[in-house]
Amino acid sequence: MTDAKLSARNVSVFYGATRAIDDVSMDITRDEVVAFIGPSGCGKSTFLRTLNRMNDTVANARVEGTILLDGEDVYAPAMDVVELRARVGMVFQKPNPFAKSIYANVAYGPSIHGLARHRDDMDRIVEDALRRAGLWDEVKDRLDASGTTLSGGQQQRLCIARAIAVDPEVILMDEPCSALDPIATARIEELIHELRGRYAIVIVTHNMQQAARVSQRTAFFNLGRLVEFGATSDIFTNPVEERTKDYITGRYG
Ligand SMILES: Nc1ncnc2c1ncn2[C@@H]1O[C@H](COP(=O)(O)OP(=O)(O)OP(=O)(O)O)[C@@H](O)[C@H]1O
């Protein structure tokens, strides 16, 4: 409990009068990859987005309960949301690089957060983030080319580099491979393995093999509830709840 990086306590999320997440509590530690699985519409993305207040941008969304980042209340009025989203970065389903150069995509965050004093510092941050995202060798000779000229898989790694560049503590990934082919998907999965331990990683996925490959713990959601959360090997081989068993064996969902 005490080594939780992120802690959700009795979190419910409403869109207008509809409850999308119902009383979810969980801890996520700093050195693990956690997968969220469950049928379409069960609230995985909604819950993921509460962790760095991405739901703030949805007009009718309301969050109840508490989310703590290193014990600090994420929804406290004093919380700086821009800083929060640097500490808890996000990678989306569809790669969304800015229509700017590869370099500028990665430099954007460090620049608004004042992380580089000189161009040399920024060059180092950009190179380091691209290396850690496994993209450096493919782009080092074309840093001035637009990020949108990269392949889908490269664009997704660029988005990961962009998140990494501000030195986050947590990376949230919302179905990061669903728009990618199997080779690009395998590359992102390798990358998740390499990044594990440096950042807490939470990944929403519809692909159960992917959840089994990349995560140490898996959370199964159904109808807005957290049904079961445990070691990935247990969830996939020996789930406690009947509903989890039905879902992972493909009986519904
Ligand atoms: N902006 C919104 N306004 C109203 N309802 C919403 C909004 N976003 C999501 N919902 C509803 O909240 C519920 C949970 O949606 P969410 O996208 O979190 O589920 P999910 O498990 O991530 O689904 P999927 O796997 O299909 O992406 C669904 O019933 C959805 O229709």
Structure description:
- A six-stranded mixed sheet has the order 6-7-8-3-9-10, sandwiched between helices. A four-stranded antiparallel sheet has the order 2-1-4-5, covered by helices on one side.
- The chain has helices at 44-50, 81-87, 102-112, 119-132, 136-139, 152-164, 182-195, 208-214, 232-237, 242-248; strands at 4-15, 18-29, 33-37, 61-69, 72-73, 88-91, 170-174, 200-204, 217-222, 225-231.
- The protein is globular, with a radius of gyration of 18 Å.
- Strand 4 (61-69) and strand 5 form a beta hairpin.
- The protein is of the alpha/beta class and 253 residues long.
- It has ten helices and ten strands.
- Residues 15, 20, 38, 40-46, 58 line the site of adenosine-5'-triphosphate (ATP).
- The site of adenosine-5'-triphosphate has 11 residues, from helix 1.
Could you write a compact summary of the structure shown?
With 253 residues, the protein is α/β, with parallel strands linked by helices. The chain has helices at 44-50, 81-87, 102-112, 119-132, 136-139, 152-164, 182-195, 208-214, 232-237, 242-248, and strands at residues 4-15, 18-29, 33-37, 61-69, 72-73, 88-91, 170-174, 200-204, 217-222, 225-231.
